[in-house]
Design brief:
By secondary structure, the protein is α/β, with parallel strands linked by helices. It has two domains: about 280 residues, Acetylglutamate kinase-like (Carbamate kinase, 3-Layer(aba) Sandwich); about 90 residues, PUA domain (Archaeosine Trna-guanine Transglycosylase, Chain: A, domain 4, Roll), CATH 2.30.130.10. The chain has 14 helices and 13 strands. It has an eight-stranded mixed sheet, sandwiched between helices. Strand 11 and strand 12 form a beta hairpin. Helix 6 crosses helix 7. The longest helix is centred in the N-terminal third of the chain and has 25 residues. The two termini are about 35 Å apart. About 0% of the residues have low confidence.
């Protein structure tokens, strides 16, 4: 795509501004209603990707479709989602077909594919996250196109992303990407459901995700094939933008969907809010907090000013967590203010909750730490 032919709205995703790009492809785009692969459409997307790589961009793909493909091959009801066991069997079978299709069509364009299957723990555990980051970085530097999917054959309801929108945002963090494009069966975020409100308006740009934006999201997927919906895309946008990554939702229904987005700019672009350190971006994007600490209004205000969380400002502790575990910090209205690594385990945190620092030694029987959650190990949301 020649830069001067690119629509202004799509410029944040041009190679000059976005050296590394993550593209997520939804199940409803990749797999037809009868369970067959939309190969002709996929070939046009891969031509778009090849053109961007030729222009100097490094691209990784988060691809849905394994369960849908496997369900067709195994003859499973409800698209393979009738039970966890069916979904795992369908994923194990369909992932082979999915990776083969991507590899074949990428090879036509002279590109090499690599397969990466991840679980939630792979990106929530800091050491494993860094290992995944290193692998992604090396593959991209070799001009390889990683094809990434959740390892649904072993994931359970308790330890899974649940949708590839949020996975794409987390992969963008791990890969050090500057942009994410979610290709979907909708044009973007509307101020009302366009299926029931013909006058609904498409939001072309979102500067900040607040309650009014989240209220526009529907949890339902229009295709019934995938596991995501607009709610999952908003959640992905929050993860991405909080880490300094710009994210777009665009329709993938037509041929050459990436080129179409670049040329028309039609979609919704969520602007990166700030540039975060790699560690704080990882903290902010965490999905599996082990517990929660609720704080009063004064403590919430202090956190937003860059202060550490002191025990005196805490009003409640829930969950079971060890020192160093990720916890969510909530205000009195149950809004998440920040995520961080606790300096205390849950039992000790409950003992000193609401108590002044001068009292901690007597309560705990040892010299206390400076904070319940230190600002250096915390990310505001």
């Amino acid at each position: 795509m020649v830069a001067n032919l690119m629509h202004q709205a799509a410029m944040p995703f041009a190679p000059a501004a976005c050296a590394r790009l993550i593209i997520k492809v939804g199940s409803s785009l990749l797999v037809a209603a009868d369970g067959s692969v939309r190969r002709d459409w996929l070939a046009t997307l891969i031509k778009d990707i090849a053109a961007q790589i030729q222009a100097g961009q490094q691209i990784a793909i988060v691809s849905s479709g394994a369960i849908a493909l496997g369900a067709r091959r195994l003859g499973l009801a409800k698209g393979g989602r009738a039970s966890l066991e069916d979904a795992q069997a369908a994923a194990a079978t369909g992932q082979i077909a999915l990776s083969q299709i991507w590899a074949e069509l990428l090879q036509v364009e002279g590109l090499t594919a690599a397969q990466i299957l991840v679980t939630l723990d792979d990106l929530e555990d800091r050491r494993r996250y860094l290992n995944a980051s290193a692998t992604l970085g090396r593959l991209l530097s070799l001009r390889v196109v990683p094809i990434i999917n959740e390892n649904d054959s072993v994931a359970t309801e308790e330890i899974r992303f649940g949708d590839n929108d949020r996975l794409a945002a987390r992969v963008a963090q791990a890969a050090g990407a500057q942009g994410v494009i979610l290709l979907s069966d909708v044009d973007g975020l509307f101020n009302a459901n366009p299926l029931t409100h013909p006058d609904a308006k498409l939001l072309d740009r979102v500067e900040r995700i607040d309650a009014s934006i989240e209220a526009m999201a529907s949890a339902a997927s229009s295709s019934g094939m995938g596991s995501g919906g607009m709610a999952s895309k908003i959640a992905a946008a929050r993860i991405a933008t909080g880490a300094g990554v710009t994210l777009a939702i665009a329709s993938g229904k037509a041929d050459h969907p990436l080129a179409r987005f670049y040329e028309t700019g039609r979609g919704t672009v969520f602007v990166a809010e700030r540039t975060a350190t790699a560690r704080k971006a990882w903290l902010a994007g965490g999905l599996t907090a082990k517990g929660e600490i609720q704080v009063d209004a004064g403590a919430a205000a202090a956190l937003r000013q860059g202060k550490s969380l002191l025990a005196a400002g805490a009003v409640g502790v829930s969950g079971e967590f060890a020192r160093g575990d990720l916890v969510a910090i909530l205000d009195l209205q149950a809004n998440i203010v920040a995520r961080g690594l606790s300096e205390y385990d849950a039992a000790a945190a409950r003992l000193i909750c609401g108590k002044r620092s001068d009292d901690h030694a007597a309560i705990l029987g040892h010299e206390p730490r400076a904070a319940l959650v230190h600002r250096n190990h915390m990310a505001l949301l």
